[in-house]
Every structure is written in structure tokens, then in C-alpha cells.
Amino acid sequence: MINLLVIEDSTIRAMMADPRYLELLPCLGTAKNQLESVNRGKRNCQRCTAEKTQIVSDAVNQAKVCIHSTRGAKLTQLKKLLNARQLRLITTNGRGRRVKYTL
Q1: Sheet with strand 98-102: strands edge to edge
Q2: Domain boundaries along the sequence of the chain
Q3: Average pLDDT, rounded, for the chain
Q4: Helices marked H in the chain — which ranges?
Q5: pLDDT the model gives residue 42
Q6: Rounded CA gap, 48 and 84, in Å?
Q7: What is the pLDDT of residues 33-56, one digit of tens each?
Q8: In this model, does residue 85 exceed pLDDT 90?
Q9: What are phi and psi of 12, to 5 degrees?
Q10: Which distant-in-sequence residues (6+ apart) come within 8 Å of 33 by Cβ?
């Protein structure tokens, strides 16, 4: 069992692809739908790339909020699924500073 697991963007994407996590945390489904709705865009279109980056960033941040708001038995189940004793989320607050949350 892992003592402290830092949940990164790649971990969140893997969680969204796994139905066990979506069943445990239905709020991840909204973020997953946002990611699935992203258009590839044109190859050299800077505006398309910027829009895609913003949508992906918003979806991942929404998933982080979902995980951060998990409490009680659901949090215990989440830790068990991730095989970790503690979870750490690193997000940015309203002022743009990085904030670490340990659950």
C-alpha cells in the first residue's frame, strides 16, 4: 500500500476511464463528458489549440474539485481503489497560487 499518492492529471484521466471510479464519484462523469466533447481542431490553428487546452484544463480542475469534496465512506473507498493511505491534490486557488490538499 502506498503511503501518500499524489493525484496528477494522468491519474485523473485514468480514473475517468475506469467505470469503478465513475460509479463511486458520479461528479467525475461531468468532467469526462467535457473531455470527450473536445474537437481535435486544425493542425496549425492557434485558436483551436488554445480552446482545446482551456477545455481540458477546466475538465481536470472540475475533477480535482470533485475528488477534493469527497468525504466519509466514499473517500475511504477511493483510497482503497487507489491502494493509498493518503491522497494529495495540487490545485491553484483563485489568486493563482498552488495549494496542496492532503486527504
Answers
A1: 2-7, 84-92, 98-102
A2: 2-102
A3: 87
A4: 9-17, 19-24, 27-36, 46-68, 72-82
A5: 73
A6: 38
A7: 888 877 776 778 888 888 888 888
A8: yes
A9: -65, -40
A10: none
The single-letter code of the amino acid at 28 is: L
Which residue(s) pair with 98 in the sheet?
A: 92
The answer to whether 78 and 67 are in contact (CB under 8 A) is: yes
Whole-number Å distance between alpha carbons of 77 and 82: 9
Q: For the stretch 77-99, what's the b/e string if a residue is b when 16 or more beta carbons lie within 10 angstroms of its beta carbon? A: bbbeebebeebebeeeeeeeeee
Cell numbers linked to 55? 477545455
Record the cell numbers describing residue 90, joined without a space.
Answer: 495540487
pTM: 0.82
Task: Give the gyration radius of the chain's Cα atoms.
Answer: 15
Instruction: Please report the pLDDT score of residue 9 as a whole number.
Output: 87
Cell numbers for 77: 473507498
